[in-house]
Design a protein that fits this description.
single chain, 197 residues, mainly alpha, Rna Polymerase Sigma Factor, Chain: A, Arc Repressor Mutant, subunit A, 2 domains, 8 helices, 68% helix, DNA binding, sigma factor, sigma factor activity, transcription regulation
């Protein structure tokens, strides 16, 4: 894999070429998707975490917060890893490793120890970010705002969002994509600086 190509695609995307991100997604989708699935063992959950991973990627790239060191894939994998841990924390359940199952060297019990701990300072910061984000989201068109709120604030899967809003999954995903593009414009117009881990 050519990491120099990744840098060119990232620059192109940051310059407004939306197709460049699609090329990056297609290039690494298999590896990222397989990694997430190996942890959660559920295709719907894997799809949701995969989509959320690229939501973070988009916000970071468009916010100019990405430092390109030729390590795009490891960076995206770390985001996917952190979102997978968040999934287990929110659902208060963990992978069970049976003797008969295939043991993955990627699995590390220490990744999961302590994920239930969340200091009060972190909670306060997250609550403030949620509050600020809700104000920004209100500036979006109704159909885009609805999808974004259902995904971020109600934690529905895209399948559930499609059923709730009576549209196809592709339409729900499309609305989410446009919601993020428009949200970026709102953020830029208000000179808001976002820091995404």
């Amino acid at each position: 894999m050519n990491y120099e190509d990744d840098s060119l695609l990232i620059s192109s995307y940051q310059d407004g070429n939306e197709d460049a991100l699609q090329t990056l997604i297609e290039k690494y989708k298999g590896r990222i998707y397989s990694f997430i699935y190996s942890k959660v063992l559920d295709r719907d959950v894997t799809e949701d975490i995969f989509q959320d991973t690229f939501v973070k990627v988009i916000l970071t790239l468009k916010g100019g917060k990405y430092n390109d060191e030729g390590k795009f894939l490891p960076w995206v994998m770390r985001i996917a890893h952190n979102l997978t841990i968040d999934y287990f924390r929110l659902n208060k359940r963990f992978n069970v490793i049976h003797e008969s199952s295939n043991y993955s060297e990627d699995y590390n019990i220490f990744d999961y120890i302590g994920v239930m701990d969340e200091c009060s300072e972190t909670k306060i910061i997250k609550d403030q970010i949620d509050c600020d984000l809700k104000k920004l989201v209100k500036q979006l068109p109704d159909d885009q705002r609805e999808v974004l709120e259902l995904r971020i604030f109600k934690d529905l899967s895209f399948k559930e969002i499609a059923e709730e809003t009576d549209v196809s999954i592709n339409t729900a995903l499309g609305r989410m994509r446009y919601a993020l593009i428009n949200l970026r414009k709102v953020i830029e117009n208000n000179n808001i600086i976002l820091t995404v881990d």
